[in-house]
What does this fold into?
Amino acid sequence: MSGVGRVLGTEHSSTREFRVVLAEDEYLQLDDLVVVRTEVPKQGEVRTYGIVTEVEATFEGATFESDTMRIAELGILPGHKVRSAQVAVTRVDPELWVSVDPGEVVERAEGEERMKALYADEMGRPLPVGMGRDGKPVYVDLDFFDGRKGGHMSISGISGVATKTSFALFFLRLLSARPDILGEGAANLRILVFNVKGEDLLWLDKPNNQFDEEAREVWDELGVEPGPFPSVGFWAPPKPQSGDVVLPDTGGRQDGVTAFAWTPREFVDEGLLRFLFTDSSDTRNQIPFVEERVRSQLKRFAVDVAGEPGAIVLRDPVEGHRPGDTVVPNRGERVIRDLPSLVTELEGFIDPEDDEPDQRWTGRVQAGTISAFVRRLHAASHRLGHLVRAGESRRIDRQAAQVSVVAIQTLHDLGQRFVVGALLAETFAEKETTGQRLPLSVIVLDELNKYAPREGQSPLKEMLIDIAQRGRSLGVLLVGAQQTASRVAQEVMENAAIKVAGRLDAAEAERSEYGWMLPSTRARARLLKPGTMVISQPALPVPLVTQFPFPPWATRKEEVAEAGDPFAGL
It folds into this structure.
């Protein structure tokens, strides 16, 4: 008999799964791919491809548990060791859905047969995204990521173990290094990465001194020359109270990192006020209404200050001044050079203790709502006021490098949400203006459940839902990572065509959000090691388990290869 075994004849096989009894000198392991050739009456040969989901062994002839000893050690009881494997059907070619016959020879799917089992032969642009247990590449169809047929990627798993961000960066490194596969989308591809924890992502341009030859061989198998990201720009918020000298607020790395901020003029023109109110509790009252009124009035009242780039004053438009005008401040007129001065000036217009507050700014709302609005403004001014300052524009230039890393880990939660919201709005607005899918803009956002929670509403959540629903048609692609998919807005998760999971909490793995997994895969997801991921994509009916290689770029300062290190020249 050729092959690894035969289709088991003591159990019914179906169009979904079948069992294989293995030959004594053969084996199958989890995730192995197999093929069975069945002669169907009046149709001819039909090949059924499948993936091994479980492997078992037993003694035939054993009735009681103690019979195991009598068969294996004493030899006083006749018995025979039988090993078997459960196989989930992935494909039938030609597509004639019949079950395999009992007793049919089961072979390993290799070469072209393996590509057929993975549907790689039907993928428009198969991109290798890791290695299977057989040491061969596993593929993802890029048509379901870059917007042609679908878009976005969701990555879930336990923090620190699931290596979610590491896989996202690995995927993007492959994406940028294989223009032959990405095609027209490779031209001017731009990637925006938010560093929300530690400073792990501030070393993407440096080689890793832990990289070895074994890891290089895997990268070579994937068709990519290993090395750090070749084009990276690093951005960080300015240090609070840094005065006239603006320094990036980072610890382990200062060189090559540029401080970013918005001017009061940019803050007003881009409507960034709304991202100061991203707490879902703010939507339970009329605060969003007040914010919208104040935001619109700011655009009407703000005029530029002569000789001070980015600074503004608020003047009533009935005085003849219009947005875009440049004026010399009057005596006693407050010049707005930062967020605290803007909040102070706004308070003069909307102070609820005023006998006659200007209702053009707030509308007819209760004084308590206005007070709550002002309190949140002051809180925002304290927590992220250093992000708004007059002077030459310090906005993030996403065109300066292929990958822009924005380090927001030192900011308060409110500050992080503000920066994420402002940059997402900017990116999406640019694409809406052009209306073109190309060039592609990829956004990598960790802790997605914090920005698009399942419960409540906020301007940031609404923007992420909009990106999830319309982004792929505009070439704005979201790679979101989270510990628990069950806590992310359902609209965001449903629109992710490619779903990835590392190690999962046992309770989380049973949630409906992971219904795309097989029962056996859910059980394995609780035990996955770092670097092993489960991938689901529309091109395949079953999820695949893959391993991605060690990164050739440093993930912390201690890993940066110095001159003389074996891999310093990567």
